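Aim 2, interim progress: modelling of the flavin-adenine dinucleotide-bound target.
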Amino acid sequence: MTDVWSNWSGWVKAWPQNLAAPSTEEEVAEVVRTAQAPIRVAGRGHSFTPLVESSGTLMTLWGLAGVIDHDESAQTARIKAGTTIRDLGPELFERGLALVNQGDVDRQALAGAVGTGTHGTGGTLGSLSSAVTGFRLVTASGDILTCNANENPDVFDAGRVSFGSLGVMTELTMKCRPIYALEEDGGRMPIEEVLRRVEEFRDANRHFEFFWFPFAKDALLKFLRETDEEPKRRRRLPDGELARSDKVVMWACDISRFLPFLRGPLQRFLTSASGSRYAASAGSDGAEFQKKKVRWSHEAFPSDRNVRFNEMEYAVPAKRGPDCIREVGEHMRKCGANFLFPLEFRYVAGDDAWLSPFYKRDSVTISVHQYHKQPYDELFAGIETIFRKYEGRPHWAKIHTLVAKDFEALYPRWDDFRSLRRRLDPTGKFLNTYLKRILGEA
Ligand SMILES: Cc1cc2nc3c(=O)[nH]c(=O)nc-3n(C[C@H](O)[C@H](O)[C@H](O)COP(=O)(O)OP(=O)(O)OC[C@H]3O[C@@H](n4cnc5c(N)ncnc54)[C@H](O)[C@@H]3O)c2cc1C
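Predicted structure of the complex, ligand included:
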């Protein structure tokens, strides 16, 4: 059957010959043994790069979902690979457990998010992949490997961040923690003061991030801190329904698309409309912030992002984050490009998955977004040069132009990863054109 698939932003499309939707591990193995290559698994299509594209077989794992069991003493849970993070939250909650950290949205399938190094923010908190203590993998031969620190440890270290290039994950074991509530607050602050105080904010808050429209003088701070206060339940918007704030952003994007000279005033307007001013002399304990919400963690982390965009993100050494974002902002103001979205600045702790952007390095991630109706190539190209100057490693799911020889210089275990991949998949069953390019395979 020929059908069309497209990613969240609508810029990546695929016309696979076959679609497969196995709902058991045995069915996944059967598809892998018999289906036409390249075989790519689609999580929930939230990647901006063509990782999922396939002209052969596209596999979805929507039927392979749910928590299998949990271990109370170890605080771990075994989870089927196709479970979305959104569905996972309440299931874990019922068992008294929660993920240690989460990213901006929760629409992704767990295996899709883990496989690309998806992360949230927190000075001592790693990416989702760093919380994986084991997984099961269907390899190109149709064999099933159990991978953890004791069994197949090399596949465990290589596979946690491997974007479906080693095989199909069918289940993951995640390190969790007892349920917890988070209070959110934030405010506006001049960007130069934020950059001076980022480490103070990082150390005083479990989660700290900021957004900055480069044409605005203020940045928008967001803090999440653990609390014993009673959380309020959150009402999520139905799929596709736009919040009022989304409508304002979309309206601003559409105006600035046709009237680019308004991009500066609109960015300043969106900044001032987004929150009250944070007194320059305020302390880092957040006391001066107006507390907004207290929620259970799985309801506190995700935002509803309904205005579509394309995104590039690099992880740079944590110390260099402030200088890097300052330079990126300056470039964006001067380069003449038409853009409206803010930059996002987050902290991620180092880990040890071979291809993790945070491999052995505490990092700051800086994200740049472009409205989905506008081209991004020129804007991203100029910024990528800056990211690379700061020894940046790109997010695997977000737009970049690096190829194998570039990754070789960024990842000490790059060659080990390639050898292991060839051993597991000698004929390249899981490689599409894009993966061949970034992995340096003919
Ligand atoms: C609105 C939005 C917000 C985002 N916010 C964040 C954020 O806060 N932090 C962050 O780090 N990233 C973020 N991302 C990026 C996103 O987390 C990644 O793109 C993630 O990989 C998407 O998961 P997915 O389930 O949609 O996977 P897909 O995009 O569908 O797939 C991602 C990769 O995983 C592979 N894969 C999927 N399932 C399996 C499996 N069972 N076995 C093996 N391989 C598999 C796919 O083949 C592909 O290579 C965001 C993206 C969007 C669109």
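The radius of gyration is 21 Å. The longest strand covers residues 168-178.
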